What we know:
Blueprint: H1 3-11, H2 18-29, H3 36-45, H4 49-76, H5 82-93, H6 99-116, H7 123-137, E1 141-142, H8 155-161, E2 163-164, H9 166-179, E3 184-189, E4 192-198, E5 203-207, E6 213-215, H10 217-226, H11 241-258, H12 262-276
Parallel strand pairs: 1-2
Antiparallel strand pairs: 3-4, 4-5, 5-6
Helix pairs in contact: 3-4, 4-5, 4-12, 5-11, 6-7, 6-9, 11-12
Amino acid sequence: MDEAKIKALISLLDDDDVEVISQVEKELMAQGGSMIPFLEKEWEQNFNPVVQKRIEDIVHLLQFVLLEDRFAQWKKTGGADLMEGLWLVCTYQYPDLEFATIKSAMEQIYYEAWLDMKPDMLPMEQVKVLNNVLFNKLKFSSNTKNFHSPANSMISQVLESKKGNPLSLCAIYMMVAQKLKLPIYGVNLPSLFILTYKNENSQFYINAFNKGLIFTKEDIDNYLHQLNLAPIDVFYQPCSNIDIVARVLRNLIISFEKLSEMERVDDVKKMLHFLTGEKY
Length: 280
C-alpha cells in the first residue's frame, strides 16, 4: 500500500460511521507491522484527538500481533534464551526497547562477577561472590515498598532501578550465574520464586529476594508445612524458562489488576494463554 493510500485511509478515521472506521482499521491491520512507522508519523502530524486515539489503538493492535509472533518463535525454541523471553515481556509496555539494551546491561553485571570468580572455588564460595557483586557492589535490592508495581516484572526497569521482586531478581542472578557456567536454576515455589544450585554432588537453595540467603531442602519442607501444602517435586527442582516467563506474566496480571488497568489485564491474559495454553 502506497503512502497516499495510507493517508487517504487515515483521513477516514475522523468519520462518524462505525462501519467506515471498522473497514479502515481492517485494511490497515491487514498490512501488518510494516504499517506502524507510517501510523506513528501520521499521529505526530495529526492534531485531531479522536483520530490520534484511533491511530494509537491500531498501532497497539499491530504491536500486539507482532508480539504474539515473536512469542511463537521463542516458544518454538523451547524458551532457550531466557533473556529474550523477558525482553519480549518488556516490549508489551515498551515496544521500542531494543534487545541489545538489556543484553549490554547483563553483560556488565556478568563482567563484574567474572572478575571476582576464581578457579576451583567451592559452590558456596561461588554463590558468596555472586551475592557480594549483586547485592553489595551493584546494590540490587528487593522492592518491598512497591512490591506489586508492574515495573518489578519488566527486566529493563529492574536493571535500571536495581529494585525488583523475587522473580526478577532471581532471573538476573540466574542468567549471570549460568553465563559463568554455574549450575543455578529457577524453582517455582508457591508465593515465592527461588533458585537452586544443583550438580551431581550437591543441591542447596538461594533466596535472591533476601540478598542471596542460602538455605536447605528442610527449610523448604518447613515453608510448605506452614502453607499446608504437600511437598511435591516441582517445589524442589529446576523449572523451565517458559515456566519463568509464564510466572512473570501472572505477576503482571496481578499488578495491572491492582491498578484497575483491565485492558492491560486482558492483554497479558492473552499472552499467557498464547504461551502456555492456560486460561487464567
